[in-house]
Design goal:
- This protein is 46% helix and 11% strand.
- The protein is α/β, with parallel strands linked by helices.
- The protein folds into four domains: 68 residues, lambda repressor-like DNA-binding domains (434 Repressor (Amino-terminal Domain)); 200 residues, Rossmann fold, CATH 3.40.50; 55 residues, no CATH class; 67 residues, Arc Repressor Mutant, subunit A.
- The strands form three sheets. It has a five-stranded parallel sheet with strand order 5-6-7-4-8, with helices on both faces.
- Helix 2 packs across helix 3, helix 4 crosses helix 15 and helix 16 packs across helix 17.
Amino acid sequence: MPRSLKVDPRYIKQVKSALQRNRFPRQRDLAEELQLSLATVSNFLNGKPVDYLNFYEICSKLGLDEQEIAYFDSSSPSKGEDTEPHDSADTDLSNYVGRPPIESRCWETILQPGALLRLKASRRMGKTSLIDWILVEAGKHNYRTVSLSLLLADGSVTQGLDEFLRWFCVAISRQLGLPADLDDYWEEGLGSSYNCTLYFEEHLLSQIDNPLVLALDEVDQIFATPFAGYFLGMLRAWYEKAKTHKLWQKLRLIVAHATEAYIPLDINQSPFNVGVPIELPEFTPEQVKDLANQQQLVWDLAQVKQLMSLLGGHPYRVQRVIYFLKNNQQITFSELLETASTESGIFSSHLRGHLLNLRQYPELATAMKQVVEATSPIQLESTQAFKLQSLGLVILEGNYVKPRCNLYSQYFRDRL
């Protein structure tokens, strides 16, 4: 299922003009208003793939018709050289909310030679922000850093393993400032995984003196591809190599994903049963209260509980409310909560994006309808449960599924 959308090239000029028309003099102003990264807004405005929920929210804020301007052809090109370099020195972490002791555990892991860190959490739980925090810390210690979102690997490079691994190598080489001399290492007959491993060993790792932190975000983007098992098996092989090869100890891998891999993987070839697992929790009531106080919103514990009863402690939803109330003081706390699940509420584009995506996949829409109409957690077919969890719509409790929050229950109960 698609996890990203991009603006049709024919509408890019119209999209950019909408920025000024809506009184956003800079891309950064729009990013701050929506609590998105500057890179996400830049990618949207320049016709590059962004997460589909971000796509709908930016369209809503700029008054754009998302169905008109979206480019739905999954085979459209998005070359590896179009990926944005990750410069830890330019990463803004001023709004980052720590969840101790997760950060210290992550950093202790990255310090270990050949480390593999696995970050798992549903959509918009803060995986990318945590990656940014780790890479900033790594930069302070003169580690080389690369951040690569597999959302950028669209139809032009996901048809087969060879195309994908060539894109993978080019994208990483560019961020390291090294020439992508693939033809010198890609030998016919050796196999794509072997060629990619050889490229890393002889071209990348051998040319850098300090450890390399390679962060792969949105890894579940490739779970449905025919080559997922080979790619994930290669990552596992690299982790095993580091146990006996000093050169491979330079590589510190971060793998971030929203669900478990629902593809068959041999236990000895999977990267998901080795390394250090980190599962991001929702914010606690104390963290929500502290966040509100930081924005000069004086909430008592009863208000915090009322908010979390509707939204849970999901970082995106909580911060969206806090920043909205800070910047729209004519709206009261009670008014915001009363309209939150309606078309006039602050989550309207967020909810509509989910709804439109579900309607593209009737089996998921049916499953979600069953979940929100049930009075207690229910069982679903495992792939459907994993996909709904990946979208951030449900919580898994053992073999049972329940809505992620009351906001989703209220909205989808009326519309599915």
